[in-house]
Design a protein that fits this description.
This protein is mainly alpha-helical and 556 residues long. The chain is built from 23 helices and twelve strands. The chain has five domains: 75 residues, Arc Repressor Mutant, subunit A, CATH 1.10.10; 95 residues, Arc Repressor Mutant, subunit A (Orthogonal Bundle), CATH 1.10.10.10; 96 residues, Winged helix-like DNA-binding domain superfamily/Winged helix DNA-binding domain (Arc Repressor Mutant, subunit A, Orthogonal Bundle); 68 residues, Arc Repressor Mutant, subunit A (Orthogonal Bundle); 100 residues, no CATH class. The strands form four sheets. A three-stranded antiparallel β-sheet has the order 1-3-2. Strands 4-6-5 form a three-stranded antiparallel β-sheet. A three-stranded antiparallel β-sheet has the order 7-9-8. Strand 8 and strand 9 form a beta hairpin. Helix 7 crosses helix 8. 28% of the residues are buried. DNA-dependent RNA polymerase catalyzes the transcription of DNA into RNA using the four ribonucleoside triphosphates as substrates. Specific core component of RNA polymerase III which synthesizes small RNAs, such as 5S rRNA and tRNAs. It is found in: Nucleus.
């Protein structure tokens, strides 16, 4: 765990959970597994504060605990899980794309609360959807429940481990081990949720209902708990990562081959998305006949053409698809380890061109393709003068983008009798880039927080003016009225906004912003949203790099 990761984790914990949780989390990240009293002493907090902070972290699966031999409970922070907070907007956007607004809100509620029962999350989402509907319309609990069942069937949500019944005995350890059988992980309890979402009452209605609510409180204590009491659900982050990985493979196939090939691979991935583990190197074998029957209805290709495409994919050097047998017209699998090829494509447009220019990028691509080259060979193949090629190679060598390998002819390693070969260590370069991405996201978060704090009043005023202008334009206001509203922002304030805009543009630099916006309680200023979107864009690169490193280490 690097300092850049610890710093980024601390910033994410502070932004989402506050200072106390950040202090507890940063202490565990920096020192490793610690008991309760050691955390309180290291973080400078009271035991009560540490307990509350640990409760929040455990609720969101950011900290795990383990009972030691002497009965002492030690808590350990999960750095990788904390870094996933940065990817929450992407999870929510994916749920919206696949399952609509209901799926989006279900995933958002589970992410915001860590763990929830099905009945609780269904009621809350139904209430939120009812708030957005026209007067007189409400959201039925059954509709929300059906979407939740679909999320569970496709493994995007899963049950949380439970305390075994034996642990509830008086002799139970101080921290019982949570267990969950794999067969029950996605089993949805049978609930009879009847009703519709409710709208929030006004203050007057709340006062009128206060006495009635107090009266019903005593009766509610004696009521039976819901049938799913104690069965909690959480978001299956690995399943979302599997979906992102599949999308990357489909995109790489489309770039390499054509749209038909990518649709065939998409069908194969969709058929095995539930049966294949997220950590498996290959998908489950699928016969050509099964693939043909599962192709989209509107995709008219004959069986013979499908077999030709599968053969072409299996013979491709990048090995997106492999053939594992001849039964059923041929058995085919999709290689998950082909993520390495995706990263190679990303490398082709990578920072050598942004940091050192297009000629450095040409040399970098050349080394990726040829593996090992001497300096003279680099000059000849890249068609770059010797002095410039030498300078560019040394620049990239100093940045650890390329490495130099010595192959001596004699044991004395004399320079005159030694070959010096330049090469690209892709795994080492990926780790270096991942470290820089962590630092970049941390800098973006700090910059966004600074600009928001320094320009809070001006940004709020600008948002109010923009909202008034939008509502007046929708009602057909005259040009003079609109101009009067625009003049609410004075000339010095406009100049300050322009300065802020220039600073934001410098901050986001070349980072793209075509990503889903991050969900927040209040909509941020469009200027600050650009930094926020840049954080998400960098996280996409982080995901590719992490997936590549993980898949490379799995290779035999």
């Amino acid at each position: 765990m690097t300092q850049a990761e610890i710093k980024l984790c601390a910033l994410l914990l502070r932004e989402h959970f506050g200072e106390i949780v950040e202090a507890v989390g940063a202490c565990l990240l920096g020192t490793g597994a610690q008991p309760l009293h050691a955390i309180a002493a290291a973080a400078g907090l009271s035991l009560q504060q540490v307990k509350k902070g640990l409760c929040v972290l455990i609720q969101h699966n950011l900290v795990t605990y383990q009972v030691q031999r002497r009965g002492l409970v030690e808590y350990e922070a999960q750095c990788g899980r904390v870094l996933r907070i940065l990817r929450y907007p992407r999870y929510i956007y994916t749920a919206k794309t696949l399952y609509g607004d209901t799926g989006e809100l279900l995933v958002e509620e589970l992410l915001l609360n860590g763990k929830m029962t099905m009945s609780a999350v269904v009621r809350r989402v139904a209430d939120r959807l009812t708030e957005t509907m026209e007067d007189g319309k409400t959201m039925d609990y059954a509709d929300v429940s059906s979407t939740f069942v679909r999320l569970a069937d496709t493994h995007f949500v899963q049950r949380c481990p439970q305390v075994p019944e034996a642990a509830e005995a008086p002799e139970a350890p101080p921290a019982p081990a949570l267990v969950l059988s794999e067969k029950d992980m996605y089993v949805v309890p049978r609930l009879s949720l009847t009703g519709r979402g409710k709208r929030r009452r006004s203050c007057d209605e709340d006062e009128a209902q206060e006495h009635k609510a107090k009266k019903q409180k005593g009766d509610g204590e004696d009521a039976e708990p819901p049938s799913d009491d104690g069965i909690y659900w959480q978001v299956n982050i690995d399943r979302f990562h599997q979906h992102f990985r599949d999308q990357g493979i489909v995109s790489a196939v489309a770039n390499r081959m054509d749209q038909t090939s990518s649709e065939i691979v998409r069908t194969m991935l969709r058929m095995s998305e539930v049966t294949t583990s997220s950590s498996a190197p290959y998908t489950q074998p699928l016969s050509s006949n099964e693939i043909f029957r599962s192709l989209p209805a509107g995709y008219n290709i004959v069986k013979q053409v499908l077999d030709q495409y599968l053969t072409l994919l299996a013979d491709d050097p990048l090995e997106f698809v492999g053939k594992s047998g001849d039964s059923g017209g041929g058995m085919y699998t999709v290689s998950i380890l082909s993520l390495s090829s995706i990263l190679i494509h990303r490398f082709h447009d990578f920072p050598p061109s942004l940091r050192f220019g297009s000629r450095c990028a040409r040399i970098f691509r050349l080394l990726l393709r040829k593996k090992h080259l001497e300096q003279k060979q680099v000059e000849d193949f890249a068609m770059i003068p010797a002095k410039e090629a030498k300078d560019m190679l040394y620049k990239m060598l100093s940045e650890n983008l390329v490495s130099l390998q010595e192959i001596p002819k004699t044991p004395d390693h004399a320079p005159s009798r030694t070959f010096y070969l330049y090469t690209v260590n892709v795994l080492s370069s990926a780790r270096m880039l991942l470290h820089r991405c962590y630092k970049t996201v941390a800098n973006l978060i700090e910059r966004r927080q600074f600009e928001t704090k320094e320009n809070k009043r001006l940004l709020e005023k600008s948002q109010r003016v923009e909202a008034i202008l939008a509502s007046m334009q929708a009602t057909g206001a005259e040009e003079g009225q609109l101009q009067e509203i625009e003049e609410m922002i004075t000339a010095p304030e406009r100049q300050q906004l322009e300065t802020l805009k220039r600073n934001v543009n410098k901050c986001v630099g070349v980072v793209g912003t075509e990503v889903p916006p991050s969900p927040r309680p209040l909509p941020p200023s469009p200027l600050i949203s650009r930094i926020d979107a840049s954080e998400n864009q960098v996280d996409e690169t982080i995901f590719v790099l992490e997936s590549f490193i993980e898949s490379t280490l799995k290779k035999p």
